[in-house]
Structures are given as structure tokens and as C-alpha cells.
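Exercise (ungraded).
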Amino acid sequence: MKITIAQLNYHVGNFERNSFLIKQAIKKASDEGADLVIFSELCITGYPPLDLLDHADFVKKCDETVKEIASCCRGITAIVGSPIINTRPEGKKLFNAALVLSEGGIIFEARKALLPTYDIFDEYRYFEPERNFGIFEFKGKKIAITICEDLWDEQPFPNEFEKTRLYTVSPAEELAKFNPELLINLSASPFSYTRTGAKRKIFTGKASKYNIPVIMVNQTGANTELIFDGGSMVISKNGRIIRQLPFFEEAVYTFDYEDLLSVTDEADPPLPDQIELIYKALITGIKDYFGKSGFSKAVLGLSGGIDSATVLCLAVEALGAENVKALILPSRYTPARSLDDAVKMAQNAGVSYEVISIEKPFMAFEEVLKPIFRGLPPDVTEENIQARIRAVLLMAYSNKFGHILLNTSNKSEAAVGYGTLYGDMAGGLSVIGDVYKTDIYRLAKYINRNSEVIPESILTKPPSAELRPDQLDTDSLPEYPVLDGILYRYIEKQMPVSSIIAEGFDAETVLKTIRMINSNEYKRYQAPPILRISQKAFGYGRRMPIVAKY
Amino acid sequence: MKITIAQLNYHVGNFERNSFLIKQAIKKASDEGADLVIFSELCITGYPPLDLLDHADFVKKCDETVKEIASCCRGITAIVGSPIINTRPEGKKLFNAALVLSEGGIIFEARKALLPTYDIFDEYRYFEPERNFGIFEFKGKKIAITICEDLWDEQPFPNEFEKTRLYTVSPAEELAKFNPELLINLSASPFSYTRTGAKRKIFTGKASKYNIPVIMVNQTGANTELIFDGGSMVISKNGRIIRQLPFFEEAVYTFDYEDLLSVTDEADPPLPDQIELIYKALITGIKDYFGKSGFSKAVLGLSGGIDSATVLCLAVEALGAENVKALILPSRYTPARSLDDAVKMAQNAGVSYEVISIEKPFMAFEEVLKPIFRGLPPDVTEENIQARIRAVLLMAYSNKFGHILLNTSNKSEAAVGYGTLYGDMAGGLSVIGDVYKTDIYRLAKYINRNSEVIPESILTKPPSAELRPDQLDTDSLPEYPVLDGILYRYIEKQMPVSSIIAEGFDAETVLKTIRMINSNEYKRYQAPPILRISQKAFGYGRRMPIVAKY
């Protein structure tokens, strides 16, 4: 039996594109002599469709698209992921299903049993969990079909208080009772830089445990903040990875089922470097945010600091230098050196740039506010005005020329609220809002791996917002390695305060940092969507009350 | 048996306040000779605690608070709502529980079976649904204890494609098997102006169906965008409302259980007017947003239009005229009449105001952008610059004097993206972002019910953004009654396009409107939290993808 796996880049709600990609892959699989071609979870809609699933129109379109694809399955069988209506009298309106298509019809249906409802996942919002399990017989082989989370039942979760079993049922265990000869998993599994190895273990673990070949098909590409890393896997019955498809790329791969049955002890293919994966994830995120929303050009503010320099390089890689515009917006507090660094950065990156001093608008604001402020001393108000003038200029450029403004705030700043709402927090997309400051340095070094693109002076100077004379980030914040250490433990690991302190962090610094995180929820609420690369990004995967005391 | 119900205003995460309120009510109930005092769902944490439930520290604090309250239950029994840890080896980490406290301990535990996971509710994100049911015996009576959604099993949902049974289990049906003599429901049921009557029917329906008295205890007050309307109910065994506690107010009420057993055919107490409820809801929302976050003063931009006038009046009612500051920010396009209306409005409301022309900052921006814009004709860019200059000024006032900026955008604008991001869409709280423009007029008339607070000229002039000469909203949008009709059907009712057209709306207008709604998701993503008064508000109850085609 020949099998093809298709790792494709779907666009949420774009039935035409998704169906075109799927049909193209069916044709290719057919040409390569495949009997079976497997796609990823909810490939018909793209993942995540979110509340589009509440619209009957949308669900009807899914059904029509599935039928149209089924009509292309002649002499070949395809497994696609789609929402289907729950026709039982009780329960949620939909199932998250894997549909087996052949000769114009649906010949088998597997429904997702475990519905992730945590972090960025809301599946129980839409879907009824299936509690009946069955096997699909194909070419004399018994095949167990599962959907993503169905195989993640043994996962420990950092925020489940050490509980290791989030679900009361194990689909793999249930399906094992039928003695299947192949275990298929349709996934929509987003990238998280700490989980690439763990993800492998989930699937190789199931293969070893049940002594059965496992095929996992993931999607690739980004839909708004979620970036899918591909990396689909073909695993032998003794749990070795025979083949892992590339990360962040489309790929269609055909192989023989029989090859998965031989016991091999070859080592798994090596994983790429973490920082390389993060880099590719962010490029993918930018590329698809623009491509899928029909835009090609970006604008950003270039300060001479490391954050905007890094975002500029990522944008150039994703969109091409000719599609990126830099505005350099110095104030009376911008040191000449920063201006030089910004200009040099724009030149190194090969992008067009403009320098606009914010002095005149700043003076105009000072003048009209003078009677109201009645001689009160300058404070954070005046700092924010500068940041907001820059946002007005960047958005004016964006509006006039149709460029999307890229936000350049990092995760450390966003966490502690070290940024100005409607100022440097503005933008259509936050590129590095899930990257801690210390990791920005790693990214910058990766960008410079072949030659100095980001000027050395940008990498070595101490971080500053430059909103008042001689200002440094460390005036208000702990040193970044300490800050990031606390943030990671509190945000990603959700560790209790006492445990963070027990790891050697200064108690007062920990408490002060956590207070800053909590009291700035209101700012993050209005932040742009953030490309997610971690296990816990700000945005819709982290839902904290604003008006709360904690 | 004497029973007290306590309808209180909890603050999320504020254990000290919540526990103080609860203990105070226990004392009062005790003084009134009650045997049993009942509080609302998750009263220990306040509803909704959201991802605070992911923090072990937070859950521990719940446990400690419950123990402390239990120690106050001497000679009286209390039922409180709290998250408790799920000690079973499998399943989600917590249960949403009703705990019966007596003589220092927990003597009975009921766990929520139906976990709302739609709209603003995410309960399956945190809680394991209970599937075992039991009865609590107290003073020789068998009492069935349920939690909110547990009694909503027969509800039709607009977005469930006509399905009327969202759940596969009915807790009332299960509990009825024990022949209980009283059915208690601990609620955390937010206000929605279309549901006040339906909410009554849910509970009176259960009483009639099982021929059993029903007691429903709700919380009141607002936590960020969610406003709880109170309206707790005591229902006789034949389904008559013996007493409904006030809306949007705290209340503690003691009665005799025996009074619920007599069959009465007195009519239910009348419901307040819808617009009065909306008005009270918004006042509550503002009051608690400020009070619970430790702020007392608001600033807003007053344009001379109906939206900002209405928000000003609501703010004055909620915070007091002395705590509200109006900035009137005319541009070269502001007609003298609007300026007059704005000034008159501020004077009528008795608030302090300042007039600041935005001309100088606008000229400064025009000047510095001139070389970049190279003679391109003015367009929406220049309109947005004006709106953003106003936001800079309002935020400067907010930053300098510690006032929270109130946003004055309405739901119709937010729906079609008729607003400027970082301009008139700025603010800490959106007061009327869930109120359609046509309902703003109803609200304004309600505000003027006793005397003309909002000048008549504001109520009668055609709506305009005044960002270019002679601009009218109807240049870009359908007339508001038509627009709102379409919006309501698409957003609240999630009706298919064809059904909206079938109700008599012009097909092209419907399609154009829906395109505007969908393509402006990116703007709403960055909007402030919106006080929710409807069944479907923008914000975290409506999760739409940004980079999607639909």
C-alpha cells in the first residue's frame, strides 16, 4: 500500500484556496501511485476557524467543499479534516472530523474525542467530544484514525497542577482494542520553541507502546498569530522517525506502508537549532499575515535599537527589501549615535527610509497643553506624547500608502508594561511580542551569522527608550537576564511566587515584576496580535481579567 | 426553615473584599434567624476569574478563604461557590463547586455538571464536568444544589443551528430522581437586555416541571466588561416568582421556606423597562470599572455629537460631575454649532471642561509629512490624523492627572470599522461599544426623561464625524435603522446572509455591510474592553479570525 502525506499551508475560511491545494496534492499523490493520501486536521477550513463555526453558512460551505473534493477521489482515497454537523438530538452542534473520501463519497468518518480547551485552543466551544471508537478497513488493513489531541492524552500540563491526565478517556487505548495495523493522526499543531522534541516523543511513544506504525500530518504556515511548523512524521512500528517533513514549508511525500513495518534502530533525524526554528517561524508569520490578507508592504519605525533592527531584518527576509519602508523618527532626546545606527541599519538592510524629526509636532502639543498643564513638571506624560507622535506618523504613512505597520515591542516590555499604548504598542502585527529581550539578542546574532547585517554598535549599547535625557531601561527594570528569568517562570510555567524565589531570584524583584505584569493587563488587552512562538504568548491564549486584584 | 439569599457585588481575585462581604451577610442572616444562607456561583473568587485559575497560588487562596468563612458559620449553614481541586487521577484540575459550610467545616459539596463554553464563557477551559449527582439533607429536607448552567439544559442557542439540547445530561432530571423538596441554583449570570424575561422562564419552568420551589442567587456588579444584573429569584413550587431581588444592586433577603409551598396564582412582579435596565447596567459597569481598579476620575472627548454626550451623562451619573472632565477638541472642520453644543452639554452636565483646538498639532503634522506625501491629495489619512491628535491630547490629560479615558464609540461604528484606531477608538473602557446607534437615541431620551440634559440640537442633527467639510455618516454608511437591523441579525442572531435578505433588507447593502464587519476585525482586536449588555458583544465573547477570508 502506497501512502502520501500532504503538509500544506491553508488559509482560514478560504475554501477556494484550500480546496485547490488539496486537489492539487490528490493529483500528485495519484501520479505517484498512492492508494491513500492524508491531509491535516480541519484542512477544509484552515485552523483555527474560531467563531466562523457559529455561522451555518460557513459550515454549509465546508460540506460543499468536501463533496467537491470527494468527486476528485477516483482510484485514490483521501482523508481530510472538516467540521461536520452533529445530527444527534443532544450535544454541541458540530464534530471535528476526519473524513475518508473515495469515488465521490464519504466512506468513513472518525470524530475527535479529546478537545483541547486551554491556552489558544477553544475546541469544546464548538465541538461535541466523540466517545465511540471504530476502525477503518482499507486494502485489508485495519487503520485507526485520530485527530491531533486524541494522541496527547498522556501529556503533563504546566498549569494543571502536576496532573498528567487531562482526559478521562484514551482514544489510543480504545482503538488498540481493535488491533489496528496503522495509526493515523491528522494534526493542527502550532509551533512552540520548547516543544519540538516533546512533540516527537508523543507520536514515537504511541508507536512503541502499541507496536504500530504512526503517521502524523500537520499543517504549515500561519493564520494570524498562530504559526504551524509542519514537521509531519512517518514513524516505524518500533517508534523510530523514518521521515520528518521540513519545518515551515509545504511538502507532499509518498512512501510504502511496508517500509514502516521493518524494525530499525537508526537514529531519528536531527532537530534544527532552536533559534533557527524561531527565526523561520517569525518569517512564516510575517509572510502569511501579509500574503493571506492581501498586503505586500510593511512600514516600521527604526530607532537605532535592537528590537526594531531585528524586526526590520525579519520583514526584509519575509517580504523583500523593496517592500519594507523604515521611518526614522528622532526627537530632541535621540543621541546622534542612535540616528547613525538607524540609518546604517536601513542601509545594510537595503530598504528605503525617511528621517522625520518629531520636534515640531512635539512642540505643538507642548504649546496647546501648556494652559491645561499649568507648569506641572514633565513626567511620563511627555514621554508618552513622543511615542504617540511616532505612531501618528507611522500610521499616516500606513494609511497613505497602504503599508501595514509592524509593531516592534518585545515580550519583556509587553509583560511589564514598559511601552506606550497607542504609541510604540501600535501596529497591525506584533512580530517579536512573544520573544523575550534576551532571545532578541540570540535572534540578532543568528541574523548576523554570515555577515554583519545588524551593526555591532546596536548589539552592544545598553537598551534605552530615549524618551528623556540619558534614560536607560535599567532605570525602571531589572537587568534583562534576571527579568526574563522571572517572566518565563511566571508566564510560561505559571510557577507560584515562592517557587520562583526558591530558584534564587531576589524576593522583592520577583514581587515587583509580578505586580507590573498584573497591573499592565489593560495595556496588553489593546495590543496587536502577536506571532506566537512559545507555550504561552500574550493574546488570546492568556486570558487574564483586567479589573481584578491579584 | 428560614433561608437568606445574598446578592452581592464581588471583585475578581479580591479575596479580602469578597470574604468580608460574605461574612457580613452571614452575620445579617444569623441576626434575622436564618438557618441557611445562600451565595452565588464562585463568590469566593468573583466571576469570571479566567486564567487566574491556572495559578496554584490562586486556588490555594480560595481554599483558605473558604475555611475562614466556614469558621464563621456557627449556628447557621452557608452555601458558597468556589473552585476546588479535582483529586481524581484524570480530568481537568478543578471543579466549579457549591460548598455547604457549617460549624467550621465543609459538610456537602455539589459540583457543576454543565460547563458553559460559548460566547464569554470558557468554563471547560478550567473545570471537569461532574457526572455524579447527590442530594443534601438539611433540617429533614432534601435539597438539590445546582450551579447556574446546570438548569439551562433546555435552552435554545442562536448559534447552535436550532439545536435545543446543548448537553447530553440534564442535572435537574438526575436530581429529580432523589425527590428533592427544594432546588437551589447558585448563578453568575451576566445581564443581556434581550434575556431578562427568558431568564425568569428558565427557573420558573423548572419549578413547574418538577413541582418544587426554586431559589436562584445571582451576583450583581461588574467585573471589567461583564455586568451582572442580580435579580435573584425565589419561586414557589407552582412556578410563580414570589420575590425577585432588585437589578444591579446588592440585597440580602430572608424568607420562610414554607412560604414557597403554598400554591399561588399571583402575577409575577413586573420587569423594569428595557432601556432603564440598559441604563442601569452601563452605570454599574462604569462605577465598578473605576471603583474596583482604584480610580475615581474620568476624562472624555466631547464632540457635540450624541455618542459623547450620552457617555458624559452616564459617567456623571456613575462617578459624580466633579469626577468627570470633558475636553472639547475642535478642528478646522468643526462647525461652530457643534462647538456650542459641546459646551452646552458640558455645562448642562455640570462638568469642568477645556477647549483645545487641534489646529496647531495638525499643521505640524501636515508640515513634517509634506515631503513624504509629495503633493498627494488629502484622503482618509488626514481624517485619521485629526482623530489621533485628539487621542494624544486625551491620553496626555489622562497620564498627567490620572483620569481614565472613556471611549465613546458605539456598536454600529465598531461593527463596520467607522472609527480610527489609536484615535476615537482609544480609551480604557468602551462605555457604549455594545449599544447600537439607534439605541443610543433611546438612551439619550431616557437620560432626558425628566429634563433636557442633552441639548435637543444634539438629538436632532444628522450624525457626522466632522473630519472633512460637510461630512455625514450616511456618506459612507446606510441609514442607521437599516444598518442596525442588519448588524443585529448578523452579529447577535448569526443569521445566514440569505435569511437577512429574506427579511426585506436590500441584498447589496447586506453584503456590503457584512464585508465591512468582517474586514474590520483587525481594528476591533485592539479596541478597549466593552461593557456588555447584549447577547453578543464585540470582545472576548466573539472570537473571529483576523487573517481569514469569509
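Further reading is listed at the end of the chapter. For now, observe: The first helix of chain B runs from residue 15 to 31. The CA atoms of residues 25 and 31 of chain B lie 10 Å apart.
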